[in-house]
Amino acid sequence: MNKEEKKIINQIRTGQRSAGRILKNDPLALEKLKAKRDCLVEEREFKKIANRNARFQKQKLPYKTSVIADLTSKICKLNDRIVELEK
């Protein structure tokens, strides 16, 4: 996601920009931006858990791989949705 898309998402979220302005130009633009934002959120969550897992590995403590697998599948689904919307 480029800087402009992040800026637009933040403006929509804070109410500084109306979603209608975007929808007028491209009907799927808002949906694409939301999908990209969701993907970013999941990737951040994945990084947090991966870092936590790395710390646990150093301490020789097991961490749930199911949580990591679940987040990986969510990220893959969101990326597929982005690709589908951009067609």
Radius of gyration, taken over Cα atoms and rounded to an integer in Å = 17 Å
Q: How far is it from the N-terminal to the C-terminal residue, by CA?
A: 17 Å
Instruction: Specify the biggest β-sheet.
Output: none
User: How much helicity do the residues have?
Assistant: over 70%
* Global shape: elongated
Category by helix and strand content:
mainly alpha
Task: Kindly state the number of beta strands.
Answer: 0
Count of individual helical segments: 4
Mean pLDDT equals 72
* pLDDT < 50 runs, ≥5 residues: none
Beta percentage is under 5%
Q: Could you state the order of secondary-structure elements as H and E?
A: HHHH
- Number of structural domains: 1
Question: What order do the helices and strands come in, and which of them pair?
Answer:
Blueprint: H1 3-14, H2 19-25, H3 29-58, H4 65-86
Summary of the model, kept short:
The chain has 87 residues and is mostly helical.
Q: Top keywords for this entry?
A:
87 residues, mainly alpha, 4 helices, 0% strand
Give an overview in words.
- The protein is an all-alpha fold.
- The protein has one domain.
- It is elongated and about 55 Å long.
- It has 4 helices and no strands.
- The model has no long low-confidence stretch (mean pLDDT 72).
- The chain has helices at residues 3-14, 19-25, 29-58, 65-86.
